[in-house]
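My main concern about presentation is that the manuscript never shows what a single data entry looks like. Each protein is reduced to its one-letter sequence and a matching series of backbone shape codes. For the editor and my fellow referees, an illustration may be useful. For illustration, here is how one protein appears when written out as sequence plus structure tokens:
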Amino acid sequence: MSQTEAAVNFESFDLSKLPTEQAVNSLIDHVVALGASDMFIAPGEETTEIHMRHLGMVKKVAQLESEQGKRFSTHIKVLAGMEIDEHRRPLEGRWVRQRAGGNGKVDLRINTIPTLYGEDYAVRILYRRAELAGFDQLGLLPQQLQLLKSMLNSPSGLILVTGPTASGKTTTLYTCLEYLNNGRRKINTIEDPIEYPISGIRQSQVNTRLGVDFPDLLRSVLRQAPDVIMIGEIRDAVTARTAVRAAASGHLVLATAFAPVASAAVQSMLAYEVHPYLLSTSLRGVIAQRLVRSLKPECREPVGMEPPDEMFAEIQDLLPPGQEPKLYAAKGTIECPDGYGALNGIFEVMNVSKSVRDVVAATATAKETENAAKKDGFISFRQASLMKIASGETTTEEILRVVPAEFMGADQ
């Protein structure tokens, strides 16, 4: 999404005088032009409110009268191939739509749930890009990128990508797959849903309606003799244990899991009753991430005070030679009304060295696992965040909005 495209009115606009089809198309064009990741339609007692999530922030974009809101929602159901007369149970649908001006397509994944005043809609917007993000676009620090590539170059092992929903895990996984997709490896994926088709990779989608879930597909994929397996999400004990066994038997396995920090991913896997010793021998590394809004040079201004010496003391050795830390604040512009230009990642990349393997096998706590990783130069969320602040890539306020305070303490 270019900044020229993003320079669109962020204020809510009036759809009340438009026919239903035109109102739906105008709204979709609006949120897509802004680069929104989600759209939400929430019916109330008298009105229906429509919001979008843009750069991680939810903003109101329109309000409809109740009856128009119902017609609006029903039209989306029709376009997404959903049951228009079913209002009492959750539904899912999909609508692939041509972008305004013929500039590619967007994939809209629609989910509804019944609420007090009607069906609440969540529309996930997936942009079909000609090219996927490269490593240089993710936000990894140079030290972390070097470590990640060494992990991906391993012939086997389990690499976990962790973080909350909408933290960029899928983008990181796809970037890793693109790096591995050199024609010399057989790569299979198991996804829900398949977000971006990649030439040369065999991608399979979970279908819970037919009883085909992650464990079923994973067992079948293992019989397809892959070199690399990507699992969209480890969400049950069977998948967790099968993924670990696959990694231990000579496959490179990439998967997402839910854990707040890299070291806690070990506890997440142990909670699925994975044997500690088997996990310690198969786990190659863990990537934890968050997405923060970043500052462009034209969207920032220096803070009128020098940062205290102790603020950046612990990362002085990590900064490029000669770089002096500076504090910046967001400055609103036409292109960046909030003062932030795009989303960028902050990462933890934990290499599973011998010292880490030993504590994993001993079922150590997350803190003990992190301490073992720090002996090998592990960069924590706190340190990665301070480096982003010191280089003027983002602000302290934005970091504290996204990263829980417990992970920003000086003892982390």
Q: What stands out?
A: The chain has two domains: 3-127, 135-407. The first helix runs from residue 3 to 6.
